[in-house]
Design goal:
This protein is α/β, with parallel strands linked by helices and 177 residues long. The protein has one domain: Isochorismatase-like (Rossmann fold, 3-Layer(aba) Sandwich). It contains four helices and six strands. A six-stranded parallel β-sheet has the order 3-2-1-4-5-6, sandwiched between helices. β1, α1 and β2 form a beta-alpha-beta unit.
């Protein structure tokens, strides 16, 4: 039997500092709705929280926290990280295994960094991986604008070959738990 979890990566108040992440408010609302669907289906909600000293991501600051609309609840698992890979030097993989989670639904921040890294990591770990194509975002970068980055990664993931492991893209409204 497949057991799923919603994996919210780095969608912290820092994304609303200048320059604000592309469509941050719309993505926040989609993540809020995904959390509601997950909780209604008794699905685990897992938060990955990035921390980086000397930045808006510094641990303990207001911008390091999650927006109130999607804040973790006491039953949720929160995993801190300081690199793109949420599994590197954390207990996240162990937690997923202990909970019997074999399918992750991924959303959050930094499409080209943390989202992409963790999509690939989940696939390489043999997890069924669903990327919520309209619930991840980033900022404009020196070489590409945010909409291009998001479209590019959604295309790459849709073409991603992963023998034996399912990688799927899905709009937030179509996510099934």
């Amino acid at each position: 039997m497949t057991k799923s979890a919603l994996l919210i990566i780095d969608f912290q108040n820092a994304i609303f500092t200048a320059p604000v992440a592309y469509q941050g408010d719309a993505v926040l609302e989609r993540i809020r709705q995904l959390i509601g669907k997950a909780r209604a289906s008794s699905i685990d909600v897992i938060y990955v929280q990035h921390e980086q000293a000397g930045t808006a991501w510094a641990a303990g600051g207001k911008t390091w926290e999650f927006p109130a609309a999607i804040a973790p609840q006491p039953q949720d698992y929160v995993s801190s990280k300081s690199v793109c890979d949420a599994f590197s030097n954390t207990a996240l993989e162990k937690h997923l295994a202990e909970q019997g989670i074999t399918r992750v639904v991924i959303c959050g921040y930094a499409t080209e960094f943390c989202i992409d890294t963790n999509v690939r990591r989940c696939v390489s770990l043999g997890l069924q991986t669903v990327v919520v194509q309209d619930a991840h975002t980033t900022r404009n970068r020196p070489v590409l604008e945010a909409p291009q980055i998001i479209a590019h990664h959604n295309w790459v993931w849709s073409e991603f070959a992963s023998p034996g492991t399912a990688l799927q893209l899905c709009a937030a409204d179509d996510v099934q738990f």
